[in-house]
Amino acid sequence: MSRKSIHGEWSNRWIFILAATGSAVGLGNIWKFPYITGENGGGAFVLVYLLCIVVIGIPIMMSEVLLGRRGKQSPINTMKTLAKEAGASRHWQLLGWSGVVAGFLILSYYSVIAGWALSYVLEAGSGTFTGQSAESIADLFVGKISNPWVLLFWHSLFMLITMIVVARGVQRGLEQAIRLLMPALFILLILMVGYAMNSGEFMQGVMFLFNPDFSKLSWGGVLTAMGHAFFTLSLGMGAIMIYGSYMPHDASIAKTSILVALADTLVALLAGLAIFPIVFANGLEPGAGPSLIFMTLPIAFGQMPGGLLFGTLFFVLLVFAAWSSSISLIEPAVAWLVENRKFTRLKAAAIAGIGTWLLGIITVFSFNYWSFSFHFAGEKKSDGMFDVIDILTSNIMLPLGGLFIAVFAAWIMHKQASQDELAMGGGARYQLWKFLVRYVTPVGVTIIFLKAIGVF
Ligand code: TRP
To answer: Is any atom of ligand 1 closer than 6 Å to the C-beta of 410?
Structure first.
């Protein structure tokens, strides 16, 4: 294959691994995973999530990387090119478009939550948490989200720093930072787990996470677990596809995908192990929702020795993790603007960024002026438009996008093409991948989806 990306390439496969891990590890692992696990009863939910990572997530990640690396363009143009190459309908490019829309929608709320983390850097650094009770820490959080101006300020700041990196180009943007900060985040999480071990209720936390009780899990919960497998690995909207398009040709797709998925899962489980013991030790509610980590971790930072330093550092690292994820949410749109509209990266980033920023205002208001509740797949959701956007993207658009990616890679693309890219011969490992994307993913996604919305 002689196609080349006009946007440049990662210098080697480690940079790809770093960038893809940077995209995968983010608020999804540290903020979302604990709170949806809490809402869905713990162990059984975690088990389904882990199963989805292995049988659906990893094979789809391989498919996305392989499509991206073969097409070497934004997901929209990659799908157009590859469909033509395979003699299939040009409508396959709709997959790219739906990814662009999903990316905008996700980033619009992602940035608001990352804004919470940004503001907690200041709170932690100025000693707000020191010696505080669980109630006053909850009050602080509620006070913050009920003021739309505060949320808007931090959301704007986060969008701004995201756009700066995107404008500079993903390869140059965060490379250095991720190299250092990812391991630091990892070490700090282990430290937090160490604190949780000594806080008294560690075993209750472990049991909650790993002792499955299927009576607590609804089909709506199964759909959420599957949707989160897509979300946490950045799958189903073209983020990993565009990162794959910058991947050098000599790197093994299977090995890198497995490595990224492993690192991502480890971070999520560590976050769970750090948070639930604190939840139980302080008599808090595991199903508290999106506020969970902001109401639990500060309690720990307020009590542990060195909490001022560790607390500040933790939220700084959380912001960096969110930052390296957010750029991948908008990169497919920016790359398309550069390819098709001939915009400079700066102009493309500015336009995409302002659009997302505006959309984010919906989420800003959903925690105060516009909050309302509704039911979806048998569960009550009470954060208004934020929940609507989250369900629409994580539970519907990403799994659907992933399903079509699987169908394209396994049924439409010529066998020779996928074999060339995966470069693992036609043997058992290739057959296993093919079986998973051909049958398991499409059937699994469809059944879970229909079950959750109560079709049968
Ligand atoms: N995976 C990131 C997280 O867990 C979020 C993210 C980045 C994402 N890019 C994505 C989610 C693309 C879905 C699709 O925080």
So the answer is: no
**pLDDT, position 266:** 97
What's the 105 CA to ligand 1 centre distance in angstroms? 12
Q: What does the radius of gyration of the chain's CA atoms come to, in whole angstroms?
A: 21
Bridge partners (DSSP) listed for residue 379: 376
Using alpha carbons, list the distances in angstroms from residue 225 to 40, 257, 424.
9, 20, 30
Q: Give residue 299's Cα distance to chain centre.
A: 26
> Which residues of the chain are under the pLDDT cut of 50?
none
CA of 243 to the centre of ligand 1 (A): 13
Query: 375: helix, coil or strand?
Result: strand
pLDDT digits (tens, 9 = 90+) for 388-409: 999 999 999 999 999 999 999 9
Domains and CATH numbers, the chain: 13-452 (1.10.4160)
pLDDT of residue 306: 87
CB-CB contact of 429 with 254 (8 Å):
yes
Q: Is the CB–ligand 1 distance for residue 137 below 6 Å? A: no
- With b for 16 or more beta-carbon neighbours within 10 A and e for fewer, the 274-308 pattern comes to bbbbbbbbbebebebebbbbbbbbbbbbbbbeebb
User: Is there an atom of ligand 1 within 6 Å of 327 CB?
Assistant: no
Distance 29 CA to ligand 1 centre (A): 9
Q: Are 246 and 38 in contact (CB under 8 A)?
A: no
